[in-house]
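During the second half of the funding period, the structural biology subgroup turned its attention to how the target accommodates small molecules. The most pressing case was D-mannose, which had performed well in the primary screen but for which no bound structure existed. We therefore specified the complex as follows and requested a full 3D prediction, including the ligand pose.
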Amino acid sequence: MKNLEQTWRWFGPKDPVSLQDVRQAGATGVVSALHHLPNGAIWTVEEIMIRRNEIEKAGLTWSVVESIPVHEDIKKQKPGFEEYIEDYKQSIVNLAQCGIQTVCYNFMPILDWTRTDLAYEMEDGSRALRFDAIAFAAFDLFVLQRKKATSNYSPKRIEQAKACFEKLGREAIDKLQKNILAGLPGAEEGYTLEEFQKALDEYASIDDQRLRSNLYDFVKEVAPVAEREGVHLAIHPDDPPYSIFGLPRVLSTESDARQLLDAYPSPNNGLCFCTGSFGVRADNDLVGMVKRLGDRINFVHLRSTRRDDEGNFFEADHLAGDVDMPGVMRMLILEQQRREKVIPFRPDHGHQMLDDLNKKTNPGYSAIGRLRGLAELRGLEKGIQFMITNKML
Ligand code: DNO
């Protein structure tokens, strides 16, 4: 039975988790990006080869690029954006020349993934990432004081947010602001309040339809190049999978994913199936989505979240929470048997636990929590493969 590829995100030479650690965790593939280059810059063959050689020296393979960030001007189609698209294509050509064939990206306006709490204490003393919808609204309404923010919340939520804000001290407000606007690894840009409000203003005339068509325009330009070069694109869903700050979000549901895939029907125009992001919405049927979209899944993030009815969620252990991980894994294994190309997955995020509690770690990307996640997922894969082989499933 063909295995999925076990990969691990590595942020480059500054990552406190070393490539040696990655090997010991049992991953064979590395997911990395040239984070030191500014958004929009062409990734040159020379720069790509430096990273590739470093990864290979450690006995690993650079399997996936996560991510080449899409420049904000492309998302808004600001005059001159065509040049950024040309540069994006060039980066893809250069990656292909260096043998790297899977490229992840996202099309979330301004902010990449968003959390309010980076150290939410779990019952067992480990720490998780959390999105608290009331704290988020408190930030939006009373710290940022975004224009028109009240139209995005119910009167009840505004009351709750006000009460929450009144209890927050200066230090807690600063922390909340940092977590939301500048706190997370992989999100390349950080903002001050003023910069952020300015960035929001630029989206004033961009609604859901407009952002959607800008995304499809981008894909129709870039995917043919990826196809020609043998590169597989993988769009990451919105995280969280709904509108925040009144901004449109266009990759949150199965129907969003389907529209994107139909915009350019080719295996090279595919998805990064992130169970943690899609799983925050109760109306996303994850197992069904893998079944129906499976042939277009080019990369997988496996993690689980636990949500409530108030819009809050935290990141649970990989085999706990709301995600039916065995169900998803079974569908992925079946999909893998149907194709030549290996499907890379990584344990996404993990709790800060054991020794890592006393270390400085990238939120969500400590070594031990992900090690646990990968070990559990690897075991799950083996177990399900065994059951399929022995016709028990
Ligand atoms: C967070 C990550 C995201 C992801 C980008 C892909 O942990 O999953 O930052 O890398 O959205 O472009």
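Two results from this model are relevant to the next phase. The first strand starts at residue 5 and ends at 9. The pocket of D-mannose is lined by residues 66-67, 104-106, 112-113, 186-187, 236, 301, 364 (CB under 6 Å).
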